[in-house]
Amino acid sequence: MSLGFCSLRYLLRFQIIPGKDVREDARDLASFCVRHKIEEVVLFFAAEEWNDGLLSASSEKLWFETIKTAKLEIEKHGISVSLNPWMTVLHCDRGRTFPKDRKFQPMVSPCGETSRACASFADERWRQYI
């Protein structure tokens, strides 16, 4: 549909959890999208209650393999897939800390409060990582 200056797409934001059922979950999701004329799925990873902070290298590998498997399965049904990587810098600590294998400089608030889990945009290591 076009409104002259922009076009609209019907998207579904969704998270597929790592595990043995990833392919089946992705097929079910794709079938749902086809039935409801959803053109694109925006896949989250490591979001909400599945978020323990920035991902360690091993957790990152698990999530990326899950997303790759789901993406390939969903695209077989003609549905576009994009990503919403929840864990780029985080929004707040919520009791989290950096993974032991991630040595990022923390964000610092205008009041001088240092984050225990949120990476600084100015950190060169974080910029290389992202």
Spans of at least 5 consecutive residues with low confidence:
none
Q: What would CATH call the homologous superfamily of the largest domain?
A: HUPs
What structural class should be given to the helix and strand makeup?
A: alpha/beta
The CATH topology of the largest domain: Rossmann fold
Distance between the termini: 34 Å
- The number of helical segments is 3
In helices, the fraction of residues equals: 25-40%
- Annotated CATH architecture of the largest domain: 3-Layer(aba) Sandwich
Strand content: 15-25%
The number of E-state strands comes to: 5
Helix-strand sequence: EHEHEEEH
Please outline the major beta sheet: 3 strands, parallel
Number of domains: 2
Describe this structure in words.
The chain is of the alpha/beta class. The protein has two domains: 8-87, HUPs (Rossmann fold), CATH 3.40.50.620; 89-130, no CATH class. 30% of the residues lie in helices and 20% in strands. It has three helices and five strands; from the N terminus they run E-H-E-H-E-E-E-H. The protein has helices at 22-35, 57-75, 124-129, and strands at residues 11-15, 40-45, 80-85, 106-108, 114-119. A three-stranded parallel beta sheet has the order 1-2-3, covered by helices on one side. The radius of gyration is 18 Å and the shape is globular.
Entry summary:
With 130 residues, this protein is an alpha/beta fold. The protein is 30% helix and 20% strand.
